[in-house]
Amino acid sequence: MRASTLLVLLVLLGHSFARCNSNGPLQDETTEQVESTTTEDEELPYSLELLTKDDEVTESVEESTETPNIANKPIQHPPIGEKTGFSNVTAREGRVLGGTAATAGQFGYYMFIAGSTASGTSLLCGGALLSEIWVITAAQCVATAASVTVYGGLITTPGMTDVGIGASILVHPSYKRNFVINDIALLRLLSPMTLSATISTIRISTRDPSNGLDNVSVRTMGMGPADDTTELATTPALNYIDLVNLKKWTCLIQTAETYVSYPKNAGCLSSSTATKGFCFADAGGPVVYTSDTDSSAKLIGINSQYLGCPSSYPMSYTRIYPYIPWIKQQTKKTFT
User: Fold this and answer.
1) Does residue 228 form part of some domain?
2) Which of 110, 183, 111 shows the shortest CA–CA distance to 140?
3) How far is Cα of residue 178 from the mean position of the Cα atoms in its chain?
4) What's the pTM?
5) Is residue 245 exposed (0-12), middle (13-18) or buried (19+ Cβ within 10 Å)?
6) CA–CA distances in Å: residue 273 to residues 255, 298, 313
7) Among 29, 43, 136, 239, which is most exposed with the fewest C-beta within 10 angstroms?
8) Residue 259's domain is classified under what CATH number?
9) 50-85 residue pLDDT tens
10) How crowded is residue 102: how many other Cβ atoms within 10 Å of its Cβ?
11) Integer Cα distance of 170 and 88 in angstroms
């Protein structure tokens, strides 16, 4: 038996023993506290407005019981350029790794998020537009931000003449930065985003991607560089990639040798090679699924963690489904 295989088996055995002692009999990692309310989510028009009127789903908040993911990249992005984040960056091709360039309006719901900490550190991420005033992103993108600006309708990073909209920040109250648990946040725009041919909202899927969507193709997008660097391109394109929604148990096996265990409420994205994936500045970007019976994409998650860029290890995304009640609670006043 090869040493690497033995190491994987030992790590998995340790995980199994720990769960048996603390939580009773071992269960499949894909089993969740919340069951899907439907297996045909394409039949339901879940705009954010209609979602707030549906009370069938209950929130499943994950608590931290494991050691921090020390092998992962720092959550707070390093400084980029001046305080604006765009004035003196080094020119290079910016894109999700192995992506295809998007056209104007193709992903109108994609939002580019530029934040700044109190010390002036730039925080660059992606997000998705849920309504004219609500954007969803990763908590790691904005938890340390003193201010944040949202840009819509762009397929290149904002220039000095592009005008964004400021937003207030609502980080999930159970977010654990060192464990990257409950990595989800909402941004309430200070003024409405004007919908147009290049700016649109996306519907939230109420189908749990761990229930019936294993090994199906999903799509994500971003403007981050094509490798793990602090340099962001001056004229990068919004790029998209199609990845596999990997079965969670398979994902845990593939990442075992890194000593990183993705959180329970995280899904996994895999390309089987080191030529595709998301990278620096792509966290918070939407993960969408389009069914065979509905041509419109629906939001199932937001990008969270990656184990090196480039890397053949699976990446993680925060599944939206367990947090629908929290999203409804925070946004309900918009529609009542």
Assistant:
1) yes
2) 183
3) 17
4) 0.75
5) buried
6) 14, 26, 8
7) 43
8) 2.40.10.10
9) 554 444 556 666 665 544 443 333 333 333 223 233
10) 17
11) 30
